[in-house]
């Protein structure tokens, strides 16, 4: 019954509604089915009109195919154009760049930043900035750099190390290229900022070297202490370097000599790349070879900042320095108002320690490299080294006549030319004395105290004494020392026209000793040494066989001392002190005769056999035996 009602309902529905368009055809037209696939589950064939039984309905339902899974078809994703991200422009301060925006280094870095961002290589930007590190130079740093270049002599590596030590809080450590570039721009007068011109003017506008040095006393002390702390070879200059003076003067006419392209683009051209390449001076117009040859040599000479600022002097071997040798009883030093260091009756101080309030540091080990370097500069015969580089030594000479001749050869005010007599053992007790075996020159470390100075005599006093006493003038012969060029020629002149040792020359020796501060109370060794220097230095002819002449010389010598010393007017005092003076006088004669014999026998052009005889000289208390050469 139920089945019958169902069939009637289908028949009525089919009669009432008949679609005009086949739904199967419409479905297939809108989306074609793939080949080999069956009809959809919902696509039941409603045209089966002859269904008469329940069994037939079951058969029809069993013929309906089951739905199968549709295979996945690969599809290409839709291509989308990415939108370019608008990143904000990275500022210099974000990357730690403190270079002023207008400087050359800043422009180069900004170009690098823009190029990196345009290519979207932001990951490599940090590496590029690391390889092109820059530093913002402050006024204090530029001032210290200018002070270093004007008042000190060293290479650029030492300057860089000192700057890094003085300014340890700098964002980027100093490098040699950075220091080179900065000083080149300051020296060339490039208008990087107002402070750079002010710094240059403060250091270089004072033309007087010593006045400018006093203006920067605190900076100089700080630099010297820093260099000593880090062990850098840094020497003080005694005068301006000619290269720096040339550059300082050329800045005054920089605009007139600079071509238009340099005026418009100050940083045009390639910078110095090699360690020994000289940077072209931007203040000198590019000229032809003929025009350049006509310019002064000092104007055309340029030098790289990386080259050593000092001139290589003679190499000093450690074996040539004898610190433990026997110190002479007397040493001498000639000086004037332009001599290096501090000089005067109060004492002597080396140029490297000039202006310091604290004590001189202890001497270095002679085997140290710094000691050999300073000794090489100090003992160099080159005036370009000796007059420009300060050393920790004070020069001394064992020859009196050499120092007297130096008073005529050295520069300076005539009234300021003096020489000092120094007690060698006393000076060695206070400081350390060294001897250069090649040149026989002595030099003291640091300073010589006032206690070791016997007397200081000006050249004027020596000339006045020679004019007042003809005997003294005949012995000293200052005109010979003045006209001869060196000590060897002067001694040859003395030997060609000798002065005999007799009563007249003995009186002259007494007057000279009085001028040099000798008295009866002087040490016997000092008296002997001074008389020896007079006899040997001025080549006084000694005739040992003429005992009468020797006694006359001693009598006039002791008479000059007795006349000036009121403490020996009593006969008892004379009897006590006279033997002491006699022993000192004759011992000096013995040493002078032996030295003259040694000098004649070692000369190559005068080498011959010398006949020797022993001469006995009668004295009051003893006999003095010595050998002389009979020529």
Describe the structure.
It is elongated, with a radius of gyration of 51 Å. Residues 25-30, 33-51, 90-101, 113-117, 128-132, 191-196, 245-319 and 603-631 have low confidence and may be disordered. The longest helix has 32 residues, at 571-602. The chain has a four-stranded antiparallel β-sheet with strand order 3-8-9-6. A hairpin with a 4-residue loop joins β8 (433-436) and β9 (441-445). Helices cover 46% and strands 9% of the residues. With 631 residues, the protein is of the alpha+beta class. Among the domains are: 93-131, no CATH class; 139-300, no CATH class; 313-468, Heat-Labile Enterotoxin, Chain A (Alpha-Beta Complex). α6 (139-151) runs parallel beside α9 (194-204). The chain has 28 helices and 13 strands. Residues 327-441 form the DUF7587 domain. Residues 75-84 have a biased composition (Low complexity). Residues 35-45, 101-110, 283-295 have a biased composition (Polar residues).
Described by the principal axes of the CA atoms, the overall outline is: elongated
Find the structural class using helix and strand composition.
alpha+beta
Strand proportion = 5-15%
Helical residue percent band = 40-55%
Number of strands: 13
Number of helices: 28
Query: Would you identify the regions where 5 or more consecutive residues have pLDDT less than 50?
Result: 25-30, 33-51, 90-101, 113-117, 128-132, 191-196, 245-319, 603-631
State the distance separating the first and last CA atoms.
Answer: 178 Å
Major sheet: 4 strands, antiparallel
Average pLDDT rating? 67
Order of strands side by side in the largest beta sheet?
Answer: 3-8-9-6
Radius of gyration: 51 Å
Domain DUF7587: 327-441
InterPro entries: DUF7587
Biased composition (Low complexity): 75-84
Region (Disordered): 26-45, 64-113, 264-300
